[in-house]
From TrEMBL:
It comes from the Bacteria. This is Uncharacterized protein.
Amino acid sequence: MPDLLPDSWFTRDLPVLRAVARLVDSPAHGGAPYLGQVVPASGLPRPQVVAAVRGLVDTGYVAALTNVAGDVVRITGISGEARRLTGLWPTPQSEWERLGEQLAARAAGAATEVERDRWRALADAATAVGPDAGALLMSALIGGYVPRAH
């Protein structure tokens, strides 16, 4: 489609969001880094960081303090969705993958063949459930709600 603009999410906005999330989550910056700290943390030139931050503010991923001219001076917070996108908070999909990794590790490190078979059976069952249903289960667990059997 020739009228579409080039992608900026993967090349500019997401790397800046990751840098912002690292800085906001770091106690060294008090949770509110200045734009001048985001630039080197992102590895991108200042004009690209400014454009990315503006877009991230406009879409609600990032909250910012601006000066009277409307320029972003300091990042004051990030949304829950930004925390999930950057990996600070779990997603149902990431937790399902972690469960699979844990089951494989438990099977590999089992002390007995019986224990190994049990862990493998559980891993096989998780594989059979599939990532979509598994993500739904993890969503319920992350949210603190597990439906009860009737």
